[in-house]
Write a structure and sequence with these properties.
Elements (H helix, E strand, L loop, with lengths): L2 E3 L7 H16 L4 H20 L4 E13 L6 E12 L2 E6 L5 E5 L2 E9 L5 E8 L23 H9 L5 E8 L2 E10 L19 E8 L5 E8 L5 E8 L1 E5 L2 E3 L2 E7 L5 E13 L11 E2 L4 E7 L2 E6 L4 E2 H6 L11 H31 L1
């Protein structure tokens, strides 16, 4: 079932009514309303943190663009449509119109590509490297599996650590969605933990403002980072939420805008054109066919690089784990360098011995 939720459902009016009634009774009974609100803010943030951890698997198709807004112009960089399949720590990403594919499994990352050569032949290459999880990916256009929650892991971690310090503000409608507003003061030393781009106007600290929609599974239609003077410095927005799993809502578009010291504004935008969330993904999804003749470079072992060529059609599982389908491994550069270093060291020792011996003979 997919349900569109651009506005707060009428059936959820009870949430606002109950909240206001509780606060009114607290005031009439002489209860400290500030403490009651702080407890409610804690519940909101707890829900937000649960939402951030709720998406474990899925299939996404998306478009990405980015640019810098200057003098009313919006030059942008767009990438071809991409697709992502993920389950826990495993993921595979493909680019539309390209043979390029990247696979991540628990203990490695595998990247395959085909490049046409000037003579018309096809050069096939694969690189095996150390694992890079979706959480650890820092590239600008990393897949938007986090949509509806925090863009940056460090921001999520900071919110979790500061859970008890949030306070409630007046609720707001964000693009038709009624949101609880939770606010947190950020000391200057912690600003880099909240934003990726630190504007000079944030040198004195910042305010983090989360707009939470509990009726949509505690998604974040808007996250604001404000300067001490209240000026909007960074915003993260999500819109066109749909229910993609039981009580799990996912946006169709997310956008980040950050003011730069130059006066320009940097932006990034993901448009999600297809999504299936928290559905089982078989292990076979994280495997691709590898043709004979593919040149493989294994960089998992730090300085040691193994290079070999696939001699029979196989798949990425076999390339990573079964050397019987591979041609003779070339001497890796790391081993060669070590041999050269050892020979050079022996040469230096021998030369020193010869010089010292001649010196002693000349003194006799």
């Amino acid at each position: 079932m997919v349900t569109r939720h651009d506005e707060r459902p009428a059936s959820c009016g009870w949430y606002r009514s109950v909240s206001r009634a509780v606060l009114l009774w607290a005031f009439l009974l002489g209860i400290d309303v500030t403490e009651l609100s702080a407890g409610t803010a804690k519940e909101m943030i707890t829900g937000v943190l649960r939402r951030a951890e709720s998406i474990r698997s899925g299939r996404l198709t998306y478009r990405f663009e980015s640019g810098v807004i200057s003098s009313g112009e919006m030059p942008s960089r767009r990438i071809p449509r991409r697709s992502l399949v993920f389950s826990d720590s495993n993921w595979i990403e493909r680019h539309e119109g390209s043979t390029s594919v990247s696979i991540h499994r628990r203990d490695y990352t595998f990247r395959y590509d085909e490049t046409q050569q000037p003579d018309g032949s096809m050069r096939r290459t694969a690189i095996i490297s150390r694992p890079i999880s979706l959480v650890d990916r820092m590239d600008e256009n990393r897949p938007p599996w986090f949509a509806g929650s925090f863009w940056h892991t460090k921001q999520l971690q900071y919110v979790e650590q500061q859970l008890a310090r949030f306070r409630l503000r007046t609720p707001k409608h964000i693009r038709g969605v009624l949101c609880e507003v939770c606010e947190l003061d950020i000391p200057a030393k912690d600003v880099p933990r909240v934003v990726a781009i630190v504007h000079p106007r944030l040198a004195g600290g910042a305010v983090l403002r989360l707009h939470v929609a509990p009726q949509l599974g505690f998604v974040l239609p808007l996250v604001e980072v404000l300067g001490p003077d209240g000026a909007e410095m960074v915003t993260y927005t999500g819109s066109r939420f749909t229910e993609v799993a039981d009580q799990v809502y996912f946006p169709r578009q997310i956008r980040m805008r950050a003011r730069l010291a130059t006066g320009e504004t940097r932006y990034q935008q993901f448009t999600i054109v297809g999504s299936q969330i928290n559905e089982p993904v078989p292990d076979s999804e994280f495997n691709v066919s590898i043709p004979a003749g593919t040149r493989v470079q294994d960089e998992r072992d730090g300085g040691q690089v193994r290079r070999f060529e696939v001699v029979a059609p196989t798949d990425s599982f076999e390339v990573v784990g079964d050397s019987t389908l591979l041609s003779t491994v070339e001497a890796d550069r790391g081993s060669t360098n070590r041999v050269v270093a050892i020979i050079a060291a022996i040469g230096v020792v021998l030369l020193g011995y010869v010089v010292a011996r001649r010196y002693l003979v000349s003194r006799r």
